[in-house]
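Board notes (copied after class):
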Amino acid sequence: MTEDIRDVAIIGGGPCGLTAGLYLCRARIDAVLLEEQLTGGQAIYSPLIENYPGFPDGISGVELVELMKKQTERFGLEVKAFSPVNGLMLDGDLKVLALDGGELKARAVIVASGRSPRKLGIPGEEKYTGRGISYCATCDAPLFKERVVMVIGGGDAAVEEALHLARFASKVILVHRRDELRASAHHQERAMSEPKLEFIWNSEVLEIKGDQTVSSAVVRDNVTGESSEVPVSGIFFYVGNEPNTGFLPDVVELNGAGYVVTNDRLESNIAGVFAAGDARANYFKQVILAAAEGALAALSAQRYLETIGARKAYEGGH
């Protein structure tokens, strides 16, 4: 019985992985996409993407991903949702992926696993996650209609989600450890003109309190050292992200933050293992860049397959 070996396994179903799958299947390469949850990645949490070319009025992350999925379906990409990859091993030229129900072998792998929101690890965070604490305003904002909520962070994601929350909540309090936002000028202008948005500067949240659900947050002013308890019904965290690369073996080179180090062809230090998008050690994290890198990784993987195919043909003839 012939063992089933795929040409390329794509790990991650966000814009990066979907684009890689589109390019590979359009080139009639046997590719399979493995996604830990539902396809879409972090993009689905963005209520409005205004800088993706082709959509002059902007488009929601959910809508954009749905269009990408339809395009991959047209070319027959096999997508396996709820298929987390628990490990990657090397077997000669083959890459062996450890899955919940067994393993999958492929000649090449594209790591497009993205990144996940970082947690603060403060008292109450674990206890009240899903009970007033959220990492996705797009998902949960309607639950806090006419209530006071808090957003922790000062970058683009924090401001974008705070503005989205302002459409539902009676007040949105943004807590930032610095005295000014890190968000882009465009986002800052929108934030400063939103009447429902208030700011607590130079501060950090020390503890989250409540009973069955969140009722308040203990906030410390880092300038004065004084702490106060702020009544809120919900808290949304946007304090950075961590790469989803824990399944990779030690032989794959990562940088100090855990992102995959690649060359300009997006190949890691292991031949046939590529990385693209938010899981890769690149400077900027944007949907359009993730999609572009997905295309480049697919093209590089295709070239790799041609190379090992030519090598095997040569070895077979000698």
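Comment from the instructor: Residues 29 and 156 are 37 Å apart (CA to CA). The first strand starts at residue 5 and ends at 11.
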